[in-house]
Amino acid sequence: MKVIVHFTSTLQNRLRTGHFVKRRHFLTTPAVRIVEVGPRDGLQNELVTLSVQDRAQLIRMLTSAGCSYIEAGSFVSPKWVPQMADTEQVFQELIHLPRHTTLAALVPNLRGLEQALRCTRVDEIAIFAAASETFSQRNINCSIAESLERFRPVIETAAQHSWPVRGYVSCAIACPYEGTISSAQVAMVTRKLFEMGCYQVSLGDTIGVGTPFETKRLLQEFSGQEKKQIAVHFHDTYGQGLVNILVSLEQGITTIDSSVAGLGGCPYAKGASGNVATEDVVYMLHGMGIETGIDLTKLVGAAEFICALLGKPTRSKVGAAIAATRSI
């Protein structure tokens, strides 16, 4: 019992202060930007469809925790993704949210962009392509080349409204249908998105099978300058999310996608579990002396809120550990 009490006291002190003692580490980056994708990529693959008010409250809590970039929803057909229905109303609920928080929306086409244009609180938009031809066909019913052409008018229209555009490349390491994907193929699609006007491209290990070796090999396809415009998006299906992020940091990546409570997955990739949990990422980064601007205690509170609504436990090991100390 004494050991448990000592651990609890130490953890509470670390959370209250700062989080963590600064340490000398082998990385040169002093800070990392966390892209919180829980309200979109997380919730879209959960069985429970939440109300507009609950989705908006989650985003407010994430903002209060210090999340400065949040994917708040997507303008896709509710027929295909019912969890993202009424996204326009969610943004309406957030019109008074502080402007230091960037709210992004995923749009699949011009129709989705037109919906986004009606929302005064949409700050950025995101588009998604794939590095796998089969995945592209199964996901959006067109080839990779056709998908990029579909996005061209979306990016051009967004530019006319001074909206930054962020891109995604799915299946950056492997595909549920084709298996391993060539790093050169991923780099080709990524560079096309850059050429079309995306200021950043997030590389997604959609089914979560990547290992540190494969992550390093992928990122070595890119120059140092290109890496400044690349983010990584790992799913934790095989428990490799954090180690893949560590390798990405070593490779010079400074933007990490993650999802509160490890929510989500991919509705088109059978067996793919949730995204790497934001709580776990923040705990690791703070322990390395890398700033995120996020309050871990408040973040865990947001995770507990959303998990209670979904009726499921958190997938975050850090969140579960902190919750356990509260019950002692």
TrEMBL record:
Q: Can you tell which superkingdom this protein's organism belongs to?
A: Eukaryota
What start and end residues bound the annotated signal peptide? none
Q: Which residues form a coiled coil?
A: none
Any Pfam family hit: HMGL-like
The record's keywords, sorted A to Z, are: Lyase, Metal-binding
Q: Which GO molecular function entries does the Swiss-Prot or TrEMBL record give?
A: hydroxymethylglutaryl-CoA lyase activity; metal ion binding
Identify the metabolic or biological route this protein is part of.
Answer: Metabolic intermediate metabolism; (S)-3-hydroxy-3-methylglutaryl-CoA degradation; acetoacetate from (S)-3-hydroxy-3-methylglutaryl-CoA: step 1/1
Question: Is Lyase a UniProt keyword of this protein?
Answer: yes
- Is Lyase set as a keyword in this record? yes
GO terms (BP aspect):
ketone body biosynthetic process; L-leucine catabolic process
Q: Identify the InterPro entries for this entry.
A: Aldolase_TIM, HMG_CoA_lyase_AS, HMGL, PYR_CT
Every copy of the Pyruvate carboxyltransferase domain together lies at 32-300
EC number annotated for this UniProt entry: 4.1.3.4
The protein's matches in CDD domains, at most eight in alphabetical order, are given as: DRE_TIM_HMGL
Name the protein family: Belongs to the HMG-CoA lyase family.
Name this protein carries in UniProt: hydroxymethylglutaryl-CoA lyase
